[in-house]
Protein backbone atom coordinates (compact mmCIF):
# COMPACT_ATOMS: atom_id res chain seq x y z
CA UNK A 1 0.00 0.00 0.00
CA UNK A 2 2.78 2.39 0.96
CA UNK A 3 4.76 1.65 -2.23
CA UNK A 4 1.78 2.26 -4.50
CA UNK A 5 0.96 5.54 -2.73
CA UNK A 6 4.57 6.69 -3.15
CA UNK A 7 4.52 5.75 -6.84
CA UNK A 8 1.28 7.68 -7.39
CA UNK A 9 2.71 10.73 -5.62
CA UNK A 10 5.94 10.56 -7.66
CA UNK A 11 3.93 10.26 -10.89
CA UNK A 12 1.74 13.22 -9.91
CA UNK A 13 4.78 15.31 -9.01
CA UNK A 14 6.35 14.60 -12.40
CA UNK A 15 3.10 15.29 -14.24
CA UNK A 16 1.95 18.45 -12.40
CA UNK A 17 3.72 21.76 -12.98
CA UNK A 18 5.54 23.26 -10.02
CA UNK A 19 5.38 26.92 -10.97
CA UNK A 20 1.72 27.84 -10.98
CA UNK A 21 2.24 31.37 -9.70
CA UNK A 22 4.57 34.02 -11.03
CA UNK A 23 5.90 37.07 -9.29
CA UNK A 24 7.37 40.15 -10.83
CA UNK A 25 8.32 43.71 -10.13
CA UNK A 26 5.70 46.43 -10.55
CA UNK A 27 6.97 49.71 -11.87
CA UNK A 28 6.33 52.87 -9.88
CA UNK A 29 4.67 54.56 -12.84
CA UNK A 30 2.16 51.73 -13.11
CA UNK A 31 1.30 51.90 -9.41
CA UNK A 32 1.09 55.70 -9.31
CA UNK A 33 -1.01 55.75 -12.47
CA UNK A 34 -3.59 53.39 -11.00
CA UNK A 35 -3.72 55.41 -7.77
CA UNK A 36 -4.20 58.64 -9.68
CA UNK A 37 -6.97 57.08 -11.74
CA UNK A 38 -8.71 55.82 -8.60
CA UNK A 39 -8.45 59.26 -6.97
CA UNK A 40 -9.81 60.95 -10.09
CA UNK A 41 -12.69 58.46 -10.23
CA UNK A 42 -13.49 59.11 -6.56
CA UNK A 43 -13.62 62.89 -7.08
CA UNK A 44 -15.77 62.52 -10.18
CA UNK A 45 -18.11 60.17 -8.29
CA UNK A 46 -18.63 62.87 -5.67
CA UNK A 47 -19.36 65.46 -8.35
CA UNK A 48 -21.85 63.06 -9.98
CA UNK A 49 -23.94 62.85 -6.80
CA UNK A 50 -27.24 64.70 -7.19
CA UNK A 51 -26.95 66.77 -4.01
CA UNK A 52 -23.43 67.92 -4.88
CA UNK A 53 -24.45 68.77 -8.44
CA UNK A 54 -27.36 70.85 -7.17
CA UNK A 55 -25.07 72.67 -4.72
CA UNK A 56 -22.58 73.38 -7.50
CA UNK A 57 -25.38 74.80 -9.64
CA UNK A 58 -26.56 76.93 -6.71
CA UNK A 59 -23.03 78.34 -6.49
CA UNK A 60 -23.10 79.10 -10.22
CA UNK A 61 -20.87 76.28 -11.44
CA UNK A 62 -22.09 73.78 -14.02
CA UNK A 63 -21.32 70.16 -12.97
CA UNK A 64 -20.11 69.36 -16.50
CA UNK A 65 -17.62 72.22 -16.26
CA UNK A 66 -16.48 70.95 -12.86
CA UNK A 67 -15.93 67.48 -14.36
CA UNK A 68 -13.91 68.95 -17.20
CA UNK A 69 -11.78 70.92 -14.77
CA UNK A 70 -11.18 67.88 -12.58
CA UNK A 71 -10.09 66.00 -15.71
CA UNK A 72 -7.63 68.82 -16.43
CA UNK A 73 -6.18 68.87 -12.89
CA UNK A 74 -2.76 67.42 -12.17
CA UNK A 75 -2.48 64.08 -10.40
CA UNK A 76 -1.13 65.75 -7.26
CA UNK A 77 -4.11 68.13 -7.04
CA UNK A 78 -6.57 65.29 -7.56
CA UNK A 79 -4.79 63.21 -4.93
CA UNK A 80 -4.96 66.07 -2.43
CA UNK A 81 -8.65 66.61 -3.12
CA UNK A 82 -9.38 62.88 -2.83
CA UNK A 83 -7.52 62.82 0.49
CA UNK A 84 -9.72 65.61 1.77
CA UNK A 85 -12.80 63.72 0.60
CA UNK A 86 -11.63 60.60 2.43
CA UNK A 87 -11.10 62.63 5.61
CA UNK A 88 -14.75 63.71 5.71
CA UNK A 89 -17.01 61.86 8.15
CA UNK A 90 -18.73 58.76 6.82
CA UNK A 91 -22.47 58.75 6.37
CA UNK A 92 -22.79 62.24 5.01
CA UNK A 93 -25.08 63.35 7.83
CA UNK A 94 -23.01 66.43 8.48
CA UNK A 95 -24.28 69.46 6.58
CA UNK A 96 -21.09 71.28 7.47
CA UNK A 97 -19.07 68.50 5.82
CA UNK A 98 -21.08 68.81 2.61
CA UNK A 99 -20.63 72.57 2.57
CA UNK A 100 -16.91 72.18 3.24
CA UNK A 101 -16.64 69.67 0.40
CA UNK A 102 -18.41 71.99 -2.00
CA UNK A 103 -16.24 74.92 -0.98
CA UNK A 104 -13.09 72.83 -1.46
CA UNK A 105 -14.23 71.67 -4.89
CA UNK A 106 -15.14 75.19 -5.97
CA UNK A 107 -11.81 76.58 -4.73
CA UNK A 108 -9.81 73.88 -6.49
CA UNK A 109 -11.77 74.37 -9.71
CA UNK A 110 -11.32 78.15 -9.45
CA UNK A 111 -7.61 77.70 -8.82
CA UNK A 112 -7.28 75.22 -11.71
CA UNK A 113 -9.10 77.61 -14.04
CA UNK A 114 -6.52 80.28 -13.39
CA UNK A 115 -8.57 82.43 -11.05
CA UNK A 116 -5.65 82.78 -8.67
CA UNK A 117 -3.56 84.82 -11.13
Written account of the structure:
This protein is an all-alpha fold and 117 residues long. The chain has a domain at 49-117. 73% of the residues lie in helices and 0% in strands. The longest helix has 21 residues, at 28-48. The mean pLDDT is 80.
Uncertain segments are none
Radius of gyration, taken over Cα atoms and rounded to an integer in Å: 25 Å
Distance N to C terminus: 86 Å
* Helical residues, percent: over 70%
Biggest sheet details = none
**How many strands in all?**
0
The overall pLDDT, averaged over residues, is 80
DSSP strand (E) fraction?
A: under 5%
Structural class: mainly alpha
Order of helices and strands: HHHHHH
Count of helices? 6
* Shape category: elongated
Task: Please describe the topology of this protein.
Blueprint: H1 2-15, H2 28-48, H3 50-58, H4 63-72, H5 75-87, H6 95-112
Nutshell version of this structure?
This protein has 117 residues and is mainly α.
Relevant terms:
single chain, 117 residues, mainly alpha, 73% helix
Amino acid sequence: MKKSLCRVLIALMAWMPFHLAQAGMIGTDRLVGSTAQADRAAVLAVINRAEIASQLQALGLDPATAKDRVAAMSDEDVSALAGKLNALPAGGSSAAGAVLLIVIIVLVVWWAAGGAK
